[in-house]
Amino acid sequence: MSFRQPAKIRTNLTQCIAPLLVFLSGFPCASAELQNVEVGGEIRIRTNTYSQHDVMIANCVWGLVDKDGKVIHEPLYAGVDEFSEGLAAVTMDPTWSHPRKWGFVDRSGTFVIEPQFDRTGRFSEGLAAVHTEAGWGYIDRFGNLAIPPQYEAASPFSSGVAVVQTDGIPGIIDRSGNVKDLPGYDSAWGICEGFVGVRKGERFGFVNLQGDLVIPLEFESVREFQNGVAPAMQQGVWGLLDTQGNFVVQPTYQKMNGYPGGIFCVTQSGRAGVIDSQGRTIIPIDYGESILGLVPQFTLIDGLLQLNTSPLATERLFFNLAGQLEFELSDGPGFYEQESDDLSWHVGFFQEGRARIQVHGKEGLSNGGFGAYGFIDTQGDVVIDPIYAGVKRFSEGVAWVAVPRSAH
What we know:
By secondary structure, this protein is an all-beta fold. Helix content is 0%, strand content 50%. The protein has strands at residues 35-39, 42-46, 60-66, 71-77, 79-80, 88-91, 102-105, 111-117, 119-120, 128-132, 135-139, 145-151, 153-154, 161-166, 169-174, 179-181, 187-192, 195-200, 203-208, 213-219, 221-222, 230-234, 237-241, 247-253, 255-259, 263-268, 271-276, 281-287, 299-301, 304-308, 315-319, 325-330, 332-335, 342-351, 354-360, 372-376, 382-388, 390-391, 398-404.
């Protein structure tokens, strides 16, 4: 089975018709504070650098495929996370209601670190945060404890340090386990370019890696430094701070998210665009359509600036880092060429040259009303047929795909 190439989007974006079912993919580029978040009755850590494992799809198991859809590992795991530094966290426990442990597999799907942890983060700089009954700690790539579990929360390592929390007090920890406490702050997060964001009450600022306050707590919100500047909010709008805490781009934007290389995705008056670290225009703030107060925003993934043209997006625009439009794709009807059954499909963001698609309308592809999933390439051609109950984005050349246990 194969799909025809999806129709290219219309020139007049305001004429698009929003689908009733919307496929949302990718991760927001905004920072999140280091904090504990209750999900499904349990407390999980959330940081700006990685997201915890997606909720497991009931009665499904996950396997691995390559970019052509070739099965690398047969579906086996009940829960999985994306790959980082060659390893991905998985669990073989069948449901959320039973005790479960997480371990790590390599890109062949083979266990490198046996399941033994309650929860895990992704590997960064050779270490991964793991949770046991004693709290959060860190392991190396062989599963050896590098820093014993003892913390209430723990972020990934960046520039040789990470943020942890003990008795409600955030701190900065090095690879040897030495901690610099940050008393007087409610939270800390976002290690980047030698700065760590901190919050006290409703005010935000930055400390250096020694814990010294170097940018005062004068802002309503801040995000990580990128290319020598950091987004900061004042009086409800965003601008860019330099390392001295001065605005080099005045706060005038509704939203602002930063990426490595000094790329900043912004919105203004309900429209989306992209600027550099000096405020110079990369993509004019003239794209997208606000619906019910929801404003679309560019996202940088895999070297492409990608935009859903509205919160109920039927169309995707893809620009290079010079601000030139590379290609366009749209949601809409598709057809199985052999059977000509009408289908509706929704396109996600690209990563590693593949975007996941969600397909509705064909008997046998309902997945409880959520449709079936596959992947397209940047030409809009289906390279992995939509036959899966769920998929994760490609990472390090492979992707996790889910099938019902009854079909396995």
